[in-house]
Amino acid sequence: MLEKSKISVVIADDHPMILKGLHDELQANNYNVLGQAANGMQALELILTHNPTIALLDIDMPLLTGFEVIKMAKQKKVDTKFIILSFHKENDYLSQAKALQINGYLLKEDSFSEIEDCIQCVLNNDVCFSRSFDASSLVTVSEDLKKIKHLTSSEKTILKLVAEQMSSSEIAEQLFISIRTVEKHRSNIIMKLEIENTTTNALTNWAYLHKNVIKEL
Question: Where in this chain does the record put each HTH luxR-type domain (predicted)?
Answer without folding.
Answer: 144-211
